[in-house]
Amino acid sequence: MPHAPRRLLIILAALSVAALLFAVSSGSVTTGPGTLRDLLSGSADPLQTDIILRLRLPRALAAFGTGAALALAGALMQVLLRNPLADPYVLGTSGGAAVGALGAMLLGSASLVVDASAFAGALLSTLLVFALARAGGAWYDGRGYDGGTAASRLLLTGIVIASGWSAAVSLLLATSPESSLRGLLFWLMGDFSFVERPGPILAVAGAGTVAGLLLARTLNVLGTGDWQAALLGVEVRRMRAAIYALAALLTSLAVTTAGVVGFVGLIVPHFVRLAGGSDHRIVIPGSALAGGTLLVLADTLARTLLAPRQLPVGAITAAVGVPAFLFLLRRSLRSSR
Known about the structure:
Elements: H1 3-25, H2 33-41, H3 46-81, H4 93-106, H5 111-135, E1 139-141, E2 144-145, H6 147-174, H7 178-188, H8 199-214, H9 216-222, H10 226-231, H11 236-258, H12 264-276, H13 280-304, H14 313-336
Antiparallel strand pairs: 1-2
Helix pairs in contact: 1-3, 1-13, 3-8, 3-11, 3-12, 3-13, 4-5, 4-6, 4-11, 5-6, 5-11, 8-11, 8-13, 12-13
């Protein structure tokens, strides 16, 4: 591995640790380095210990795991669709997961059923975008997209499907009990307030990173086109099915953890590719670290900017993601010409 990409991973790892420390130190009760040192030695004030260990740390870890999962899903979908604008939010995968999770919640289902429903919705949405874009001629051959026309067709397909999921969410909310309406709305916009167990999302994000690293060389080959991958011995259909399932799993658990948080899967993998190249041995771990760092910082800003009131995390990421999306779209269309 070249030294420059290795340095990038070291920098991203250091930034992730700094972001987590900043998150647990920020809030209405100030906790500095001395407090953290006392916490490690067991001599910290009980109130501050309770605030850090029971409130801030689980929330920060959940934000990190969610950001890592969304960034990994975005990186995988960009390989799957061979388009730098692919993203679970833009292409409707997050919307499908939200509909599945919300429907299960309103039926009073257990958390395991909610997770399974979200996974089914995310997988269905990804398959719909892929099938409709392909039926429309996006893959004119086995090598990739036919320039800006297919990229626009793919985006329009995803936007239409995302709009359909949005309408389904509106219908479910309209029929939900008024007592739970506010909480559901805030959850749908991105909320880590009620996360008590960050373990599941961290475990899935970690497993997704390991799986992505194991598949990194194959992902590099798939990025050159289906024909080339098949000629080099890659079982293209099986690999695509595995990428579908992994991206849907990452997205669905991110949605059940914090609701719909947009644009992380779009801007983070693109930044990592610009900084460290397109080798997925760098893109996969780099996206996980950078995505986790971005969402930890966004969540910290969301809960401190107008404290004691909290902003939805999705609003913070959208404020960054929308301009970035427009910039990338313009750049993609310009390069295709």
